[in-house]
């Protein structure tokens, strides 16, 4: 199990202005941990903007501005999303223009796609396109993308999970309603999708102890990408009926009751393999969902469970991978979410510590082959694109949100 992550030898907490002795962490990392938060976040922002330029060059410029993989997950739309984040932080109009250009190419590349989600489908292209058009003041282009979004039709065999299923489409609806305006996508349209998700979850759960259950490729996954954590996370952003709220609560209580003794969560129903501490499978993605539950549902058990799961991420979350789906960048968002929920500076420090580890060591470890840079090394979800996004989010930690998951 230990071969999946680096030992976390950083202090559990260092108050600002305290000098950290070099010790096992090494001098350069200790120096970063000693910096005031504002000073470190400025360094991270500078690093992020440099990385952003590299990502754009590698995924867009050197490809002749042609798109093969249009998705947010590993493709060009992820670069556009990173540019949008950079624009939000710096207000650089060039980033907004480049973002718009990439989305237009993704629009063309995805026009015949049958995939319907934000992260891996057509909905992401149309939703992000409409939002960028609004920021650019282009009403005609905004209307174009909204029309295309509303024309999306579901295949008959659509699953319910986040990456390829109904939950991923609903998240795109929430994104539009947040960034363009309430009821951009009507409650009626979303309610039809919610009904299908709830009905499907109840049907598969049957008379089991968990109120909702879902399958993807024959497995009853629990994680954020393909399973329970991701689906109920999206449902908590919807207008739910009282009995549906109880189903969501019951599902989360079931997951908490059946977590591993270590505090980690199984990747799928019945799994006894306590190995994965990723956003996609395991404690990190579940923690973000539990934070949402504590915010939305107000149950103290969800708050405590989120704190407990966060401890697993601190101990085992320095993964030998860089990305946000299954890497250190994604796991850092756990501490930003816990900081937002509790206001405790200890969590801000832990986010700072994971980000400092990345800043100090990631690129060198990748070059040495000791850390996996992702099969698509410049992508948002697998590669350094996600690390750049995280570094930009560190500038305003109270507003930070895991890309395409926290709304």
UniProtKB/TrEMBL annotation:
Keyword rRNA processing attached: no
Binding site for Zn(2+): 280, 325-326
GO molecular function, one term: metal ion binding
One GO term (biological process): peptide modification
Keywords linked to the UniProt accession: Metal-binding, Zinc
Entry annotated with the keyword Metal-binding: yes
Signal sequence, start to end: none
InterPro entries the UniProt entry points to: 6hp_glycosidase-like_sf, LANC-like, LanC-like_prot_euk
Membrane-traversing stretches: none
Top-level taxon of origin: Eukaryota
Entry similarity comment: Belongs to the LanC-like protein family.
Protein name: Lanthionine synthetase C-like protein
Species: Corchorus olitorius
